[in-house]
Write a structure and sequence with these properties.
With 126 residues, the protein is an alpha+beta fold. 52% of the residues lie in helices and 26% in strands. The longest helix is centred in the first third of the chain and has 36 residues.
């Protein structure tokens, strides 16, 4: 019988992966900073046009700006944590569903649960 089973995919931290992740974080951070500045500009523009924007409009812009700031802080934290990790550490990338063959007498705990990838190549299935 075949059943769906959740499998965890992990990446081994290499210098290449580390640089790729740092670059990705920097790109996301730059995009969020641009969005933040655009929201700030839109808020100022709306305030000038409406001479004292209503509370609802101001609250919306401030909420959106705060969300961007929190995401930027989160990315900064992720970058700092990545810098601390030694090469060879395993990072959880994602979870996937896979088909697993199950027969009477099989141990459920012993079926494959983790796939380890290093530089885009599967190196281990646990």
């Amino acid at each position: 019988m075949q059943v769906l089973r959740t499998v965890i995919v992990k990446q081994v931290l290499t210098e290449t992966l580390k640089q790729s992740l740092l670059s990705s974080y920097q790109d996301k951070k730059s995009q969020l900073e641009k969005e933040y500045e655009q929201l700030r500009f839109e808020l100022k523009k709306t305030e000038r046009q409406q001479k004292g924007v209503g509370q609802q409009s101001t609250a919306f812009f401030q909420k959106e700006m705060k969300q961007r700031q929190q995401k930027i802080e989160n990315i900064n934290f992720q970058q700092s944590q990545l810098e601390l990790l030694p090469l060879g550490s395993e990072l959880k990338e994602k979870e996937m569903q896979t088909l697993a063959d199950v027969k009477i007498g099989d141990r459920w705990e012993e079926t494959e649960k983790t796939i380890v990838i290093k530089d885009g190549i599967v190196v281990e299935i646990r």
